[in-house]
Amino acid sequence: MTDSDSAVTRRRVLQGSAGAGAAAAGIGGFAAGGAAQSASIDDWLGDVSNYDGVRDETGSSEVTVDVGVDANGGAYGFGPAAVRVDPGTTVTFEWVSNTHNVAVESQPDSADWGGVEEINNEGYTDSHTFETAGVYTYFCSPHRAMGMKGAVVVGDADVGGAASGGIDWGNLGVLGAGFALGIGLLMPFVRRALDPSPHNPNTHE
Length: 205
Ligand SMILES: [Cu+2]
Prior knowledge:
Layout: H1 2-26, H2 32-45, E1 55-56, E2 62-71, E3 74-79, E4 82-85, E5 89-95, E6 100-106, E7 116-120, E8 125-130, E9 134-139, E10 149-154, H3 169-194
Parallel strand pairs: 1-4, 2-5, 4-10
Antiparallel strand pairs: 2-3, 5-8, 6-7, 6-9, 9-10
Helix pairs in contact: 1-2
Copper (II) ion is lined by residues 68, 76, 100, 140, 142-143, 148.
Organism: Halobacterium salinarum (Halobacterium halobium)
Keywords: Copper, Electron transport, Membrane, Metal-binding, Periplasm, Transport
Domain Blue (type 1) copper: 67-154
């Protein structure tokens, strides 16, 4: 009961976010909708050890998600945990270890993905073509508590976060710091190159 209540809440959050993202995209916006959406997908995958942003697989007509990769303290991960694909992309879920399923947590209103409710073992595969744009979240029933959860983002829904193909200001900051450090380290050589006189600049004049 608590579980389904929180599922409903989560669905509302996701749907609200999708709307905001669409509006932001419509006006060429970038900032406002992103925070809420980032919060929703980061909420869902916040305790997933192998989630490091949404992997961009747009441009591929077929994408594979491994079921039961090493993560979350055992063979309890989806690999990748979150992936972005174009509408119409066929995603194949491929079991690489035992006793997992793919249970749908939330999906866009008009979508009808059934997931794979039954528990399956290594070697099992199931494919689904994702036609409806939006955010799909899912989990493995036996290992949900360990953090075996995933997401498929279809189309250009803005989910914020790191690796969604947008500008990553966090990484730019790191790059900027590295650049500044590099310049700092190079300065003595630059000065030496610019000053052909053989003596030490510290004893100058
Ligand atoms: Cu599992």
